[in-house]
Specification:
The complex is a heterodimer of chains A (about 150) and B (about 325). Chain A has one domain (about 5-150). Helices cover about 75% and strands about 0% of the residues of chain A. Chain A contains 7 helices and no strands. Helix content of chain B is about 70%, strand content about 0%. Chain B has a two-stranded antiparallel sheet. In chain B, about 50% of the residues are buried. The mean pLDDT of chain B is about 90. The interface between A and B is large, with 38 and 41 residues. Chain B: Keywords: Magnesium, Metal-binding, Transferase. Chain B: This is Heptaprenyl diphosphate synthase. Chain B: InterPro entries: Isoprenoid_synthase_dom_sf, Polyprenyl_synt, Polyprenyl_synt_CS. Chain B: Pfam families: polyprenyl_synt.
Chain lengths: ~150, ~325
C-alpha cells in the first residue's frame, strides 16, 4: 500500500481547499485501498496519479459527509455535514476543470448522478464510483474499446 | 396593477417551467413513477418567479447569434442549481415550509431531501457535459455554475454567528457569494451562449452582481419590517439566529443601541431580543440600509445606460424595476 501517495494526496487536497470551510482532509486507508490498486495498474506521470487520487478522495469525502446526515444531528453538526458535502461536490468539479481532467468529469457525471438517485431512494450503490473510474481508466488506455463502447 | 416580471420580459413562464421539468422527465436513469421525479415536479409546480432562468434568457438577448436550445437549457440548469440550494438551505435552517408546502426534508426526511438536491446538481453537470461540443465553453459554463462560492457564503455566515465585529466589507462579500454571484453568472452565461462580446458579458455580470447585492439587502431589511404573518416567522429572525445583517451593522454604529445588540447571544431570552429588534426597527439603521441598496441600484442603472445601444437594455430596466420596486 502506497501510504506516501495517500498522504501527499490529502496534503494536496487540503492545500487546495478554502481554509474558510474548516474541512480537515482525513481518509482511512481502507477507503482508498481499492482505488490505489486500480491506479497502480496503469502507467501515468506521478503528478497525475496524485491528482486523480485527490479527486477521488474529494468525492469519497463528499459521499461520506452526506451519507450520515440524520435529522437528529444537532443544528451545527448537521449544518457542517450538509455544507461540507455540498462544498466537496462542487470542489471535485473545480479540481477536474482546473487540472484539465475534462474527460474524467464527463465520464463521472452520470455515475455520480446515479449514486444520488440510489441514495435518494434509500439504497446505496456507492461502489458504482470505483467501477466508473475503472471503466474510465480502461477506456483511456485502450481507445479501441472506447470506440466499441460508443 | 404591477406588471409581472415574465410579462415585462416577454418570456413565457410556462415554457421555462416545461424546460425545467424536462430535465428530470427525460432522464432515462430515473423511473417516471419514482419519488424523486414526483418530489422535483412538485417543487417546480409549487411556483417560484424563475428569476435566474429569466436572467439567462435576458443575457442571451445581448448576443448576435442566440442559440435558443442551448440558452433555455442553461436557463433550466440555473433554476435546478438554485432549487437544489434551497432544498439544502431548508435542511440547514430547519425550515418546515417552502412555497406554501411542506419542505422536502419534512416530506422525505433529511437524507432523502439531501440526495434529491444532490441529484439535481449532478444532473446539471451531466446535461452540460452532454450538449457541449465546444470544450472551452463547457469548462466555462460548468465552472460558472459550480456552487463553491455559494457554499463559502454559507460558511462565512456560519462562522460569524453572533459576531458583532463583522465589517461592512465582510457582509458584502458574504452577500456576493451567497446571492449575487449566481444571478450575475446567469446574465453572463446567457450572453456568452449567444456569442456576445466579452466586454458586454462582463458588464452584464457586474449589473447582475449589483442587483443581487441590492436584493440581499432588501431581503435583510424585510426581515425587520414585514409582519410575522407575512414572513411566516417572527420579525428579526435573522438576528435571533445570530446573523448579523446590514441593518444590525448600521445599528451597531449607534452608541446607545450597540451594547444591547452586542449582549444578544443564542441564550438571550426572546423578550429581551424582541426589545432590541424593536429598537433597531425604530433606529435609522433600516433607512441607511435602504440607502446602500439604492446606491447599488443606481450603479446598476448606470450600466443600463452604457448598454443602451442594445434593445435588450429595456429588459435590464425591467429587472431593475422588479428588484428595486422602481416604477421606471
Amino acid at each position: 500500500m502506497n501510504y506516501e501517495l495517500i498522504q501527499d494526496a490529502c496534503h494536496l487536497l487540503q492545500s487546495e481547499l478554502s481554509p474558510e470551510t474548516g474541512i480537515r482532509v482525513t481518509i482511512s486507508d481502507q477507503d482508498v485501498r481499492p482505488f490505489i490498486f486500480l491506479l497502480e495498474q496503469y502507467d501515468m506521470p506521478a503528478i497525475r496519479r496524485l491528482r486523480l487520487l485527490s479527486i477521488y478522495i474529494a468525492i469519497k469525502l463528499a459521499l461520506q459527509r452526506h451519507g450520515d446526515c440524520e435529522s437528529s444531528d444537532s443544528g451545527e453538526v448537521l449544518t457542517r455535514k450538509v455544507l461540507d458535502g455540498d462544498y466537496l461536490y462542487s470542489f471535485y468539479l473545480q479540481l477536474c476543470l482546473g487540472w484539465q481532467e475534462i474527460d474524467l468529469l464527463i465520464h463521472l457525471a452520470p455515475v455520480i448522478k446515479q449514486i444520488q438517485i440510489k441514495r435518494a431512494s434509500g439504497k446505496s450503490e456507492d461502489e458504482r464510483l470505483l467501477k466508473g473510474w475503472e471503466l474510465f481508466l480502461q477506456l483511456e488506455n485502450n481507445p479501441s474499446r472506447q470506440s466499441r463502447a460508443i | 396593477m404591477k406588471i409581472k416580471l415574465d410579462d415585462a420580459l416577454g418570456i413565457s413562464l410556462r415554457s421555462v417551467d416545461r424546460e425545467i421539468e424536462n430535465m428530470v422527465k427525460y432522464d432515462k436513469d430515473v423511473p417516471r413513477s419514482s419519488e424523486l421525479v414526483k418530489s422535483i415536479l412538485d417543487l417546480v409546480r409549487s411556483g417560484g418567479k424563475r428569476v435566474r432562468p429569466l436572467m439567462v434568457i435576458v443575457g442571451s438577448r445581448f448576443g448576435p447569434s442566440p442559440d435558443e436550445r442551448k440558452t433555455w437549457r442553461l436557463a433550466a440548469a440555473a433554476e435546478f442549481i438554485h432549487a437544489a440550494s434551497l432544498i439544502h438551505d431548508d435542511i440547514i435552517d430547519d425550515s418546515p415550509v417552502r412555497r406554501g408546502q411542506k419542505a422536502l426534508h419534512i416530506k422525505l426526511g433529511v437524507n432523502g431531501a439531501l440526495h434529491v438536491g444532490n441529484y439535481m446538481s449532478a444532473r446539471v453537470i451531466e446535461l452540460i457535459s452532454a450538449y457541449s461540443a465546444d470544450r472551452e465553453r463547457y469548462v466555462y459554463d460548468l465552472s460558472s455554475l459550480a456552487t463553491t462560492q455559494l457554499c463559502l457564503g454559507e460558511y462565512q455566515q456560519l462562522s460569524h454567528l453572533f459576531d458583532y465585529e463583522v465589517t461592512l466589507e465582510g457582509y458584502l462579500e458574504k452577500s456576493k457569494n451567497k446571492t449575487a454571484q449566481l444571478m450575475a453568472t446567469c446574465l453572463k452565461i446567457g450572453a456568452q451562449s449567444a456569442g456576445a462580446d466579452e466586454s458586454v458579458a462582463d458588464l452584464l455580470y457586474s449589473f447582475g452582481e449589483k442587483l443581487g447585492i441590492a436584493f440581499q439587502i432588501r431581503d435583510d431589511i424585510l426581515d425587520f419590517t414585514q409582519s410575522a404573518e407575512k414572513l411566516g416567522k417572527p420579525a428579526g429572525s435573522d438576528l435571533r439566529k445570530g446573523q448579523v445583517t446590514l441593518p444590525v451593522l448600521y445599528a451597531l454604529r449607534n452608541e446607545r443601541l450597540a451594547p444591547s445588540i452586542r449582549a444578544i447571544t443564542a441564550d438571550t431570552p426572546p423578550a429581551i431580543t424582541d426589545e432590541v429588534i424593536a429598537a433597531i426597527q425604530q433606529s435609522g439603521a433600516l433607512k441607511e440600509s435602504e440607502n446602500l441598496s439604492a446606491r447599488y441600484l443606481d450603479e446598476a442603472q448606470d450600466i443600463i445606460s452604457r448598454l443602451s445601444r442594445y434593445p435588450a437594455h429595456r429588459d435590464l430596466q425591467a429587472l431593475l424595476n422588479y428588484f428595486g420596486g422602481r416604477d421606471n
